[in-house]
Amino acid sequence: MHLEDNEEYLTGVLCGRDWLSPQAMDPSEIDRIVPANVYHPVHGPGFLARAVGGTTVVNALARFLPAGIPQASLPPFANERLWFPRALNAKLRSSADSPEQAVRAAIVADFKAADNSEVMATARIDLQIRPPLKWAGGKRWLVPRLKPLWEPYRKRRLVEPLCGGLAVTLGLLPKYAILNDINPHAINFYRWLQRGLRVHIPMKNDADLYYAHRDRFNQLISNGGAGKREAAELFYYLNRTGYNGLCRFNKSGRFNVPFGKYKSIGYREDFEEYKPLISGWSLLCGNFDEVKLRPTDFVYADPPYDVEFTHYAREGFSWEDQERLALWLSRHKGPVVLSNQATDRILSLYKKLGFECKLLNAPRNISCTGDRRPAREVIAVRGIDA
Question: How far is 228 from 219, CA to CA, in rounded Å?
């Protein structure tokens, strides 16, 4: 059992022991001595079974918090605060794009030390987990707007019939989820994430390698190997390296995105940290209306934008599909939230079906012209208690 020095101090204080003595204590002894209302991921297995997924913050230990890193609230039922380890090693720091990501990485490392995926899976850490893929129209920016809508229903199952880049579900971190998409290659990648994917293929920002990997990926598709781990690795590389992060297929089902124009790319080889987060979620591949809903499900739908280009999958997504989706959502008896580009016909369609519509300015994350002006988007809501 490994404890950082500040964790030793906390455990020692709680156990009435000296600074270093907890390091040599048996986990069962810690379970017996530590108060039942204190949660700590490195305590023994019996203690972890009662934990909700965080570490108690003791006010006297506030000085151990890394500079500039905020505390994050646990769920309302916990009435405690997360306390983040002081010792963020160089590897975690260098792999993080922000202090919040460094905190998240440290939390993941702490839970790994505890070897208890259930704790990690049920934790409600108020930090967004970065989606593993680039995604045109990704909704990571929208998560703060969706959280207040989701929070009253957070114990329910979250259903995304068009899960895309997974930004929303990773942002909300439900315990139970059904994630469906028509794109079999995205779903295959997520299924391998559930197994703790490690990428073994060579990855670099090189045109020759890109087109060689693209040919191999299309070969796997043609030969019935689209569900293999190699296909998941190639899909990740193509997603990170291709033009503007697009995911586009021709009518024959072949990936046809050209090489990108990035100066540098940060590739990831180890996706182990996603495994405890998403291993309990159900992944489906098919049409959205094939998803079997329960009346209590919280449904969030983010279809392809109502624009001319919609071929992120071989089948595309037409205006008839937009209408079919709207009607399918309107028939659900539980809470429903939809986001889409706020075209006049989208607004008219959802208002006629009894949805409450709110307009937002959204960043243009994918733009062939370099235009970064906000685009109008709509959140359409139905069945949400006021």
Answer: 12
